[in-house]
Amino acid sequence: MKMHNNDVAELFDRLADLLEIEGANPFRVRAYRNAARLIRSLPRDVADMVAAGEDLTRLPGIGEDLAGKIKTIVETGTLPLLEEEARKVPPELAELLEIEGLGPKRVKVLHEVLGVRSLEDLERAVNAGKVRELPGFGEKTERAILEGIQRLRAQYGRMLLATAEPVAEALREHLAATSGVERVEIAGSYRRRKETVGDLDILAIAAPDSPVMDRFTTFEAVARVQSKGTTRSTVHLRSGLQVDLRVVAPQSYGAALQYFTGSKAHNIAVRRLAVKRGLKINEYGIFRGSRRIGGAEEEAVYASVDLPWIPPELREDRGEIEAAMAGRLPDLITQDHIRGDLHVHSKHTDGRYSIEEMARAARDLGYEYIAVTDHSRRVAMAHGLDEKRLRQELEEIDRLNERLEGIRILKGCEVDILEDGRLDLPDSVLAELDLTVCSVHYRFNLPREKQTARILRAMDNPYFTILGHPTGRLINERDPYDVDLDRIIRHAAERGAILELNAQPSRLDLTDTACQQAKELGVKIAISTDAHTVHDLRFMRYGIDQARRGWLEAGDVVNTLPLNDLLDLMAKTRHARAA
DNA sequence: GCCGTTTTCGGCCCGACTGTTTTCAGTCG
Length: 579
Description:
Blueprint lengths: L4 H18 L3 H16 L4 H6 L12 H13 L3 H9 L4 H4 L7 H11 L4 H9 L11 H16 L4 E2 H16 L4 E6 L1 H4 L4 E2 L1 E8 L5 H6 L4 E7 L3 E6 L4 E7 L4 H9 L2 H13 L3 E3 L2 E4 L2 E4 L3 H7 L15 H6 L14 E5 L10 H10 L4 E4 L14 H17 L4 E4 L2 E3 L10 H4 L6 E3 L8 H13 L5 E2 L17 H11 L2 E5 L9 H9 L4 E4 L11 H10 L13 H16 L1
Parallel strand pairs: 4-7, 11-12, 12-13, 14-15, 15-16, 16-17, 17-18
Antiparallel strand pairs: 1-3, 2-4, 5-6, 6-7, 8-9, 9-10
Helix pairs in contact: 1-2, 1-5, 1-7, 13-15, 20-21, 22-23
The chain binds one DNA strand through helix 2, helix 4, helix 7, helix 9 and strand 6.
């Protein structure tokens, strides 16, 4: 079985867990975790890189040893060191690290003294009153462990950004309306606009006598107060979301904002630069010795290490520091660049509104154009269009375009990519369209080779324009289908095909790193909402967030083009393939 | 385990909060 990047990263993470419980050198543990993180972010499979004889030690954080272990993993599917460690430490113990308040030291004690191996064992030990007798444990710890077990069992993983947003904004306003509060900002992965958030990190400037902490812990959505101090408190909301509030002094606000925005890897990289310059950066400011030299504004943190301010969406230590040093940070796309939406449905298939209603809603957003892309016949569940019904829709669009001012409706179709890679409608009718969004909706479980070949073949069709939701994933619900995305992106580059960044909050398909790779290979992206209602058109901003995380600039995205330029590009794309 | 115009050895980001201590270890972010 071929080992993909996630599989390799998984093994390193497991090894890091076991080493940590064993009490190994924490920097060694970190080296494995860093490697796992790096491998997950790579655009290509390390297995392919190994097969091609590439030098893996050129990757940051990968030395001779890890390069050798990667090679072993992709060639044998396993890692002797991991198996050896698994004999010393029961691998199930790693699960206990997920419990809030339990780290490697305590897990080790639980295992060695009480023989705990699993969540169930731990639960029994707590109920038998044995845990409180251990050194360093007490009754409160016992209760915290029980609660932690329950939360872990109820937990589904990280929350969609779009799900967290309403409560996050309500909380922000609640805090901002508190007396003595000068500024409030949500930092963390929320500010970096990651597709999911694990918790919220809120930062505030407040006068010393401000009741902001009380206002925070008594917010109506709070289910449980985990800790409460003068500068930091943690609560859990009813939705399950954990929220931290930190109160900082005005002269530290910028440093704190930078620090709590993260990512952790980005901060470590920035601080390393600071150390080289004899500076210390922490959440209170920038210091030379004990003397503060800045920290009120975030820009000063970057300026202190000779960098321009870096947009939060880029702060993942995926090259943004190097780009900033070289003065080559991207000029990231914004919502204002967007001139239209190239993937929307109407009530002719599974949408809820008429074409006219969708077009007017798009015009209200300030768009120049909207492409109606109803489903093709194969998607029977959505009452997909056959040739005849599609032609009727095209006639309706002609009539609307004559009548409607200020918006142009483009003729499109979300054409199903059949199992063998053919498109679901004959070329004769596809030729009448301005563009196609071609997508996979069935047979997600094809073997990788077949799934990849299916999509590559579809791209060769002269009427293929945009690959819709390229991996089919639904965040927290459905994994991407097994497909060689690297090959697909390369093929798109060769064929002049466009890839969609589907802006549905639960799809956000392509991922940030895939966007980055597409950009590097010169593949254009369409950021589209896949709207089924007029309200869904507003999902565009989540697509923009993701695009920014993927380093995209306006010039990388086709729906920033004025109408005529867009139509020219679509026509050229077809000629390129037909030739 | 990685890494290097201050180093091939000795560093590796750093502070708050909790619960258990009697001055601090463990955990978290």
